[in-house]
Design goal:
This protein has about 240 residues and is an alpha+beta fold. It folds into two domains: about 40 residues, no CATH class; about 160 residues, no CATH class. The chain contains five helices and nine strands. Strands 3, 4, 7 and 8 form a four-stranded antiparallel sheet that branches. A three-stranded mixed sheet has the order 5-6-9, with helices on one face. The protein has a two-stranded antiparallel ribbon with strand order 1-2. The protein starts with a strand and ends in a 6-residue tail after the last strand.
Length: about 240
């Protein structure tokens, strides 16, 4: 259909009706929307906002994009952050208590014979606590997101705190004029008690119990956040 008339041999454009002009405008709008939609789908262009991560090639940007499409990505950093939050729970403690009597007499020189009337005695009641923990700065972790495994290397040597507070010590002394109790006699005996109690705890497996306790706490804590990952304790990790 022609959009012009011929008058006296000259083409004169016809005036477009209102409906025809509106139809042409609508076609142009739809065409523009279609081009915009194709640009968004093919090029990933977002005309309404700027990119949240300016450096798309950085490690942080890659992790951010992965988290957007696949959920939280496990890294060594967020594993260590989680362990730091539960560091107090990973301390294993064992209490001890007892009573000991210290008896001392002056002996006849060059013999094992006690001189009668020179005996003094100290009775000590005590209670203390041995705590075994680990320095989390020495814990090493490696995350394998492909296998969904978290490898953890624990420190070789735990931190030991053997606390025998003075308020938990009671001394009953039977002094002797000829053999008075020395000023350091009680403190020396308490040092011996602490050493003996620690050795007894070691012999009873306190280090092994502390390590097992720590492993259980780590597994439970990480399972709350990264349930699909398996925690594997190893002797060494390649960082």
């Amino acid at each position: 259909m022609r959009d012009y008339d011929v008058i006296n041999g000259v083409r004169v454009p016809r005036k477009k009706s209102f409906f025809r002009r509106a139809g042409n405008f609508l076609v142009g709008v739809l065409a523009g929307v279609g081009v915009l939609a194709i640009a968004i789908m093919v090029l990933g262009w977002n005309p309404f906002g700027s990119s949240k991560v300016k450096n798309s090639g950085s490690r942080e940007a890659i992790i951010a994009e992965e988290e957007k499409f696949h959920g939280i990505i496990v890294t060594n950093e967020n594993v260590m952050s989680q362990l730091n939050e539960i560091s107090e729970l990973m301390t294993y403690s064992q209490e001890y208590a007892g009573r000991v009597s210290v008896v001392d007499s002056i002996q006849v020189p060059y013999t094992d014979m006690d001189i009668w009337g020179t005996q003094h005695e100290i009775e000590i009641l005590y209670s203390g606590t041995i705590k075994v923990g680990y320095d989390l700065r020495q814990v090493k972790t490696v995350v394998n997101n492909q296998k969904k495994e978290i490898y953890i290397q624990l420190p070789k040597n735990p931190i030991v705190d053997n606390n025998l507070p003075q308020e938990n010590v009671t001394c009953v002394q039977d002094n002797n004029l000829f053999n008075p109790i020395r000023a350091d006699e009680v403190s020396v005996r308490l040092s011996e008690i602490k050493a003996q109690q620690l050795q007894a705890a070691i012999d009873n497996g306190i280090y092994e119990k502390a390590e097992e306790h720590m492993k259980e706490i780590i597994i439970k804590a990480l399972a709350k956040i990264h349930s699909e990952y398996k925690v594997v304790f190893v002797d060494s990790v390649a960082l």
